[in-house]
Write a structure and sequence with these properties.
Layout: E1 2-7, H1 20-29, E2 34-40, H2 46-56, E3 59-68, E4 71-76, H3 88-97, E5 101-104, H4 117-125, E6 135-140, H5 145-158, E7 161-165, E8 177-181, H6 188-197, E9 200-204, E10 209-211
Parallel strand pairs: 1-2, 2-3, 5-6, 6-7
Antiparallel strand pairs: 1-8, 3-4, 4-5, 8-9, 9-10
Helix pairs in contact: 4-5
The structure holds zinc ion (ZN) (2 copies).
One zinc ion is lined by residues 65, 72, 105-106.
Length: 214
């Protein structure tokens, strides 16, 4: 079951160029089994997700990308406004109350790498966000090869699972990086169960790399 877990549309993210209909159509054409809309700080209504699913005959799930003090976090399974929760620790409590799942979004994106590889690895490994999430996005559509190499090693050291999500803001980047689940998923609650159970691997369809994590 191949799912792009991280996509933005024009409907909820002003930074996106993609209409939801174009997004769903492209995901279907690519042969993805599902796509998960994760706008910045706002969730789609369940009825709108269902309508898009039915119109394009592809499962469309919903999450939200929350901006926190520890970086962007993808949240699945909280169906109330959460834009005001800016501390990642508080967000974890709220997500647990709702039985949801939390993934660190593009946590390996950096402005500058340390010239010392071990120093850089230690810095990544010590980041508190990794203690709060169920998994981390090891393949983001905008990840550089260097970020990916560090990400794979950090997640192995931390024994943390890795997912892939395109972070698409335009139609041509949908599905470049995805998550492949072992079991079928038909709705958000099954997605959350599988995320929490760790039954998936990340796949980079452009670089032809996969990662299962710790
Ligand atoms: Zn982000
Ligand atoms: Zn994003």
């Amino acid at each position: 079951m191949t799912i792009d877990l991280h996509v933005h549309t024009k409907f909820g993210s002003s930074c996106s160029y993609m209409r939801p209909q174009e997004m769903a159509k492209k995901a279907k054409q690519l042969g993805l089994d599902a796509v998960c809309i994760t706008e910045h700080d706002v969730s789609w209504a369940a009825a709108d997700l269902d309508n898009l699913s039915q119109e394009h005959e592809i499962l469309v799930l919903g999450g939200v990308e929350v901006s926190t003090d520890l970086g962007h976090v993808l949240v699945y399974g909280v169906y109330q406004p959460i834009w005001s929760v800016s501390r990642a620790e508080e967000l974890r409590k709220l997500v647990d109350q709702h039985g949801g799942a939390m993934i660190a979004a593009h946590p390996f994106r950096v402005d500058r790498f340390s010239p010392d590889r071990e120093v850089q690895l230690a810095e990544y490994c010590s980041r508190p966000i990794f203690q709060l999430v169920d998994a981390a996005e090891v393949f983001n559509g905008r990840s550089t090869t260097k970020e990916i190499d560090f990400g794979c090693e950090v997640l192995c050291r931390l024994k943390l699972r890795g997912v892939g999500g395109s972070d698409a803001h335009a139609v041509h980047t949908i599905g470049e990086t995805v998550t492949v689940f072992e079991r079928p998923i038909a709705n958000n609650s099954e997605l959350i169960s599988e995320l929490k159970a760790g039954r998936f691997k990340a796949l980079h369809r452009v670089l032809n790399r996969s990662f299962e994590g710790g």
